[in-house]
Amino acid sequence: MSEIKFWEGKEWQNHIEKLLKLHYPLGDYVPIPDKDGGDKGIEGFSRDGRCFQCYAAEEPLTIEELYNKQRRKISNDIKKFKNNQKELSSFFGPTKITRWIFVVPRHETNKIVAHAEKKLKK
């Protein structure tokens, strides 16, 4: 039986950003710093049109608690992303965003997939 690693939020974000920088060629992953004015609903984006938002809920949590926190985070950050569209477009330049990707260390219920799909349709 494997052990579940509980991530701190910033630790998870740093881990994912390192992986994205390894995956994409130099300059093709662009992080959006959050220290000055916030991240506008994304951690960064890739030049192939993907936006990434990382989230690690404070654990330990039940399946239902984790689902509720992730559902709220998706809803709030997609709203932020839409509300900041004008400012974000100045970051994207010629890049056309085609996907908003929610990156979590674990999800335990298919309800979160259904929620994300519902938000996508809006």
UniProtKB/TrEMBL annotation:
It comes from the Bacteria. This is Uncharacterized protein. It comes from Halobacillus aidingensis.
